[in-house]
Amino acid sequence: MSNFVFITLLAAFPALSTDMYLPALPIIQEQMGIPLATANLSLVLFFVFFSFFLLVYGPLSDRVGRRPVLLGGITLYIVGCILCALAQSIWLLVAARIVQAAGAASASALAMALAKDVYTGVERQKVLAYIGVIIPLCPMLAPLFGSVVLKYTSWNWIFICQAVLATLAMYGTLTFKEPEFEKIRGSVWKVISRYAAVLSNMQFSLSCFTFSFMGIGFYAFLAGSADIYIVSFGLTEQQYALLFGGNAFGFMLGSLLCSRLCVDMTSMEILRSSLTGILLSSIALCFFCNTITGFAVTMFMMTFSMGVSRPVSNHMILETVDTDVGTASSLLTFTYFILGALAMQFISFDWASKPLVIGEMGIASAMIPLVALFFLRKKHQKA
C-alpha cells in the first residue's frame, strides 16, 4: 500500500464513521422512540470524544512513534464497531460510539502528521489537496451504501461493514515504513506540556482556532440533513443519500480546483477567494432554503467553496510549526471537530427552519476567518 493511499485511508476515518449511518438516524429515532436531539447524541458525542482523544494521540505519537499508536487505535475502533452493531438502546449505542471515537481519533490525528513527515513544501500542499479530492468520495458513497444496507438488512450491519473497512487500515499500518523523526523524550508531563509550547506560537493559535470555524455550517448540515431531507421534505433514504453525495462531490471539485490554483496563486489569495464563496453561498442559502432545489444548490456551492479552502488552510497552519508536528496536528483537528460537534448539537434543537439556521451559521463560518486573515496580513506586512 503506497504512502498516499495509506494516509488518505487514515484521513477518511471520520467520514467512514459517520456518513455511512446517517440514513439510519430517522429509523433509529423511530424504533427507539426518541427525539432527534437524543438520536443525534450518537453523532455529537462521537465527535466530542473523538476530538479529545486527538489531543492524546498526537503527542503520544511524537514520543513513541506513529505505528504503535495506530495499531492500538485501529484495534479499539474495530471493537467499537462490533459493540455498535450489538447495541439495543440509544445509550448503549452512544457508549459504543464513544469507544469507536477513541479509536478513530488515532487515524485522523496522524494522517496530517504523516503528510508532514513524508512530504514537504508545495508537494505537501498538492498531496493535501489531492487527499481533499478523494476523501469526499466517502461521504458521496457511504450514505448510499448505508441506504442499500438498510434496504436489505438492519442498521446494525452498517457498523459491521465499518469494521471490515478498518481492517484495511490495519493492514496498511502493519506494512507502512515509518519515517524517521525526532521523538520527544522525558516524562508524560513533558509530553503534555508540548501543547503549551505549540499554543505559545501565536500565529499557529490564531490561524488554527479561527480557520476551524469554516466547518460549522457543514457540520450543522451533517447533523440536520437527514431530518431536513427525509422528515421535512419527505424524501426516501436513497434520495437523501444521492443529495448528500452531491455535497460531497462539490467538496471534491473544490479540492481539485485548489490543487490546480496552488500552482499560480498564493495560499492567502486562494483562501480569501474561497471564504468569499462560502459567505455568498451562505447568504443565498438564507433566501432560498425553503425548497429542495434551493437548499440543495446553495449547500452545494457552500461545500464547493469549503473544498477549495480546507487543504490550503491546513497547509498554512502546518507551515507555522517546525517541531511537535503530531501535537500541532492534533490541536488543529481537535479544534475543527470540537467546533463541528457544537454545531451539530446546536442544529439538533427544535428550530422553526433548520436550513435557515445552517445558512446563518455558514455566514459566521466565513466572516470569522476572513477577519483573522485581515489581521494576519497586517502582521505580515509589519514584519
UniProtKB/TrEMBL annotation:
Do you know which SUPFAM superfamilies this protein is assigned to? Answer: MFS general substrate transporter
Please report the record's description of how this protein sits within the membrane: Multi-pass membrane protein
Q: Which residues form the signal peptide?
A: none
Q: Which InterPro entries match?
A: Efflux_drug-R_Bcr/CmlA (IPR004812), MFS (IPR011701), MFS_dom (IPR020846), MFS_trans_sf (IPR036259)
Alphabetically sorted, this entry's keywords are: Cell membrane, Membrane, Transmembrane, Transmembrane helix, Transport
* Location within or outside the cell: Cell membrane
Q: What is its main location?
A: membrane
A GO cellular component term found in this entry reads: plasma membrane
Q: Which residues form the Major facilitator superfamily (MFS) profile domain?
A: 3-380
What sections of the protein cross the membrane? 33-57, 69-92, 127-149, 155-174, 241-263, 275-305, 325-344, 356-376
Give one GO term, molecular function aspect.
xenobiotic transmembrane transporter activity
Q: Which family does it belong to?
A: Belongs to the major facilitator superfamily. Bcr/CmlA family.
> Which NCBIfam families does the protein's record reference?
efflux_Bcr_CflA
The protein's name in its UniProt record: Bcr/CflA family efflux MFS transporter
Organism encoding this protein: Halodesulfovibrio aestuarii
Origin organism lineage? Bacteria, Pseudomonadati, Thermodesulfobacteriota, Desulfovibrionia, Desulfovibrionales
